[in-house]
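Moderator note: this is an archived Q&A kept for reference. The question asked for a predicted structure of one protein chain; the sequence and the answer are reproduced below.
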Amino acid sequence: MKRLAVALVASVALLGLAAPAQAAPVRAAEVSAAALPTKCNNIGWGPSLVCIDINAGERWITVWYDRRDGVGRQWVHGLSYTGPDGNHQDEGGFYINPGELKGYRWYNVPTGSGGYVGFVRTDAGTDNTGTLWI
């Protein structure tokens, strides 16, 4: 069944009916300052944030972790989001230092109406953005 789904997606992409989804890490400078739908939530009791924003026109979704406090490097198991199009994971873990902002952007995704939630997974647990309704 999985091979059939992959074959169908590949066939649709080859016919030009859909662009394949792409994803990549983003730097702090790339996190949009534009007036996009954005939802952030504090992580634990500190000032650090996990955020999600959606650009429906350009069809991308970004989840980022803004580590505003703490001591030393922290291991982040990953960033992800869930929305009407399903669950999506980044490429894996990374280290983040206090004062850094790191994120992940998924391109060519269906950005239809519904609820979207971003997640950051650390050794301390999983925190989420809350639901961003589009």
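Archived answer notes: Residues 19 and 117 are 23 Å apart (CA to CA).
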